[in-house]
Amino acid sequence: MSHTVHVAWDESLIRYDFGHGHPLNPVRVDLTIRLARELGVLDGPGVHVAVPEPADEASLRTVHTPEYIQAVRAAGADPDTVDVTHGLGTADDPCFAGMHEASALVAGGTIAAARAVWSGAAVHGVNIAGGLHHAMPASASGFCVYNDPAIGIQALLDAGAERVAYVDVDVHHGDGVQAIFYDDPRVLTISLHQSPRTLFPGTGYPEETGGPGAEGSAANVALPPGTGDRGWLRAFHAVVPPLLRSWQPQILVTQHGCDSHLEDPLAHLALTVDGQRESYRVLHELAHELCGGRWVATGGGGYALIEVVPRAWTHLLAIAAESPVDPATPTPQGWRDHIMARYSRRAPARMTDGADPSFADWSDGYDPADWLDKAVVATRTAVFPLHGIDPSF
């Protein structure tokens, strides 16, 4: 029997933990699952919550070098390791006990979600603990040890997929996934992120459009700091749907870092949970329009651990379960009580920030002097002609 959504989850996923004081705190994943459970999202019809198996060595090697995997194993056995060559033991990626096992489990969750969708066992697949999009083939980077979205995409290619689209809405450029598939014409990567002139990792310019033989396989929208819902959604709609409709993917893989929120402490965009939710809703619709519903979604960044991440990703889970949560819904009292008792913090009272996620459509015209519109024009000019799309409409 086919499920509506395969959710990769087990409490052991919170072992991906760089330690006290690190921004990527697994509490955000724990609180998301608690909120989703209390709202009944994970108990809905067709929701299959499955305990993932760690990715095996062969799966990891489809993206990462054997030497790097061995370095991760060694770092997990000796957390005092400093291995700058492999990006381990740095401030961003400190070593921790069991690093390999925890990272392989995250990758295994995304692989399982991807295989469930590709095989038809589920229409959608979600791994909110995943989305570690900065890891490179031979090094950790940006809080990411193994690049689970890339490993999941490679599993789809190995299973016979010929056209995979990857859309990344994290505030940081999806550099690892882009780099891994930059020369592969079977994978289209689209990333919307804060301008690399002002934010890590310093890549993701519009001119990055794919390698030789794969021209047009990468698209990057570099947004000015301060961009809010209206501008972000305007840029999203001006780039993502036209490219996906031209590409005609067989399956859609998405990364949903919610560090684009105005309260996120590590970046400078200004989205609300309502704007983020709207992007999830549209990507879900595009998966049904173009891919027969085949959609694999992961988490990603997000450092407003209580205020933003749990609500954003609960909306993602609910949309994937075909049971969207009304933004006006109050957050459950039990969830709020848990946060107060455990963290002495007041949790958000509703599933909304009270914002209206409307925007001016690109087809209504653009302002060549506006910084946001300049960013959109740069992307459309660089990549649309490579897909046979007129960038000027």
From TrEMBL:
Keywords: Acetoin catabolism. Residues 22-318 form the Histone deacetylase domain. One of its GO terms (molecular function) is histone deacetylase activity. Pathway: Ketone degradation; acetoin degradation. Pfam families: Hist_deacetyl (PF00850). It comes from Jiangella asiatica. This is Acetoin utilization protein AcuC. Belongs to the histone deacetylase family. GO terms for biological process: acetoin catabolic process; epigenetic regulation of gene expression.
